[in-house]
Amino acid sequence: MPTPSLTAFGPLPPAPVTPKKPVSDTRHGLTRTDDYAWLRADNWQAVFHDTSLLDPEIRTMLEAENAYVDAAMADTAALREALFEEMKGRIKQDDSSIPVKDGPFAYGSLFVTGGEQPHYFREDREGGHRTVLLNGDAEAEGKDYFRLAGLSHSSDHRLGIWGYDDKGSEYFTLKVRDLATATDLDDHVENTGGGGVFAPDGKSYFYTLQDENHRPSKVFHHIIGQSQSADRLVYEEKDPGFFMGVGGSMLDDFIFIDIHDHETSEYRILSTQHLDAEPLLVAEREEGVEYSMTEGGGVFYILTNEGGAKDFKIVQAPVTAPGKENWREVVPHVPGRLILSHMAYARHLVWLERLEGLPRIVIRDRKTGEEHAIAFDEQAYSLGLSGAAEYDTDVIRFSYSSMTTPSQLYDYNMATRERTLLKTQEVPSGHNPEDYVTERVFAPAPDGELVPVSLLYRKGTPLDGSAPCLLYGYGAYGITIPAGFSTSCLSLVDRGFVYAIAHIRGGKDKGFAWYENGKMAHKANTFRDFIAAADHLVAKGYTAYDRIVAEGGSAGGMLMGAVANMAPEKFAGIIAAVPFVDVLNTMLDDTLPLTPPEWPEWGNPIESKEEYGWIAAYSPYDNVAAKPYPPILALAGLTDPRVTYWEPAKWVAKLRDHSTSGQPVLLKTNMAAGHGGKSGRFQRLEEVAFEYAYALKVAGKA
């Protein structure tokens, strides 16, 4: 019997043919020829600001690819509409957050029925009169793309800073708003990273500027009412390999400048009593040593892996002398217990940790040292620690969900240990957790490691190999994919799918070592783990190879490209969203936004022949060969600064040229968006509906 993928697509028009214009490159004595290098626009920086400047030949190619996708997916139009309406029906349209108390007010956000963008509001501290401070729908009117960067308020509650990106290129414009009148002042700052931090007096703020290569290389101090050209340069990071952000302490005593790559960090701090001073270096960057800071009155609490604390520890130092020589351990390093984040309040120290693959929140009384934990009993779940906006409080906020349980928001009294359920995510069209099963299974990898896999399926789904499966993976930067609640994936599960998340190496799902063993020279473990997850699900009867649809985005898109090369026969189809597939060429191009900061994650092929070899061995684009590739859908954004549009465009062209299966390879480029796709909440659902319709189609369920 033919596999579902072989019968999924009927007759199609001829696929676009991308012209070959070979360009050769020699590094470390090795020469590679790239037939499609011309798809990288020489003026890509300018295109991020104005897409009309894109080379017409490149635009014609991308538009031809979009037309081909439309033809290939034309028969799913009704299905896509049904999926969209289902997903939309599970979202409470007029939803509102539970406001967070801060001084005389409580701040929150809401959506209105039919609205795409959030509205930010405040009300009296204990409830009552509510004022809308920023109407995102009104600001987005008439724009093809619009993304808000939130609204932050000054300590005196008079002003707010808000930011927006209207191109998808992640260059944000900041504006200052009078919160009493909900109108903007004649003040704006352009090309920022997306947020500003007020000085305590509310008369100025700090921000990061994105340079011409889209890197946050400078921190400026902006006096409200003055021209951006008059802003004082506070700090400039000369090393293009480091990201930079700016933040503030809860007590308004310090401005934090956070400088980091993926394995090394450095902080510089500025006392808000001396805003014109030079920022003070806390601990000089040391390769492989990470630290992050929060203020706790007269001390800083510092989360760090210094001194071989691979899974991190917490130390403290006086605010007057925060250097490493004064660090004193307060929460020791425990191998296998990964501390993820921390917060300090007047009477308590709080941290989020991951133990045996599951998260929990730990609270310590700062006076007595007594500790207790917040944890749950399900096999797989997600915790989010949002804390509080005020320092002198005993009440923090956290969220909980599982793959079957909608998100629940709690206030938690750290002194009395009382939980107060504030809100349960409402699913207007209905949801009964008892109709579903969630499991965590462990797939044996080739080297003997056990890879956690979180599963969701509807009760009664046959586990005899006949069920289709969407297998999701990421596996990079130490990011853990939570086993949380998703209203969207229910549309697949209700149609008989098993929904699976493979917690592969490259994330921190099983501790920091899980991340280390999925990067640099060990990157291939990420790909082998994902294939092992597929093998295990087949062996245990959850699905079959000709029914597995693999999905991943960004670095997870690299995963998709790698497993397509390594095991094309094990997947009915592959969805690669904004896929980082041209890894070697990108890591060789130090002008691109993320290349220098990414070298500690992948390797530096410019300087090292060995690291060149690591990347060349798996880079999906470089390893495309004559193989029976399954149907593949690649998704791109024209103004994406993280994974540039030409990576999936080149990859698709090369796949078409080499695939021996005759299966369609599709490229869908959003010509008015970047890395995250469309920005509106329902616009995004349209994209998910498209992806899921594709999954249903190639799995034979459309």
TrEMBL record:
The keyword Hydrolase applies. Residues 485-701 form the Peptidase S9 prolyl oligopeptidase catalytic domain. SUPFAM superfamilies: alpha/beta-Hydrolases, Peptidase/esterase 'gauge' domain. GO terms for molecular function: serine-type endopeptidase activity. Its EC number is 3.4.21.83. Residues 1-28 are annotated as: Disordered. It comes from the Bacteria. Pfam families: Peptidase_S9, Peptidase_S9_N. Keywords: Hydrolase, Protease, Serine protease. One of its GO terms (biological process) is proteolysis. Residues 16-424 form the Peptidase S9A N-terminal domain. Belongs to the peptidase S9A family. This is Oligopeptidase B. It comes from Allorhizobium borbori. The lineage of its organism: Bacteria, Pseudomonadati, Pseudomonadota, Alphaproteobacteria, Hyphomicrobiales.
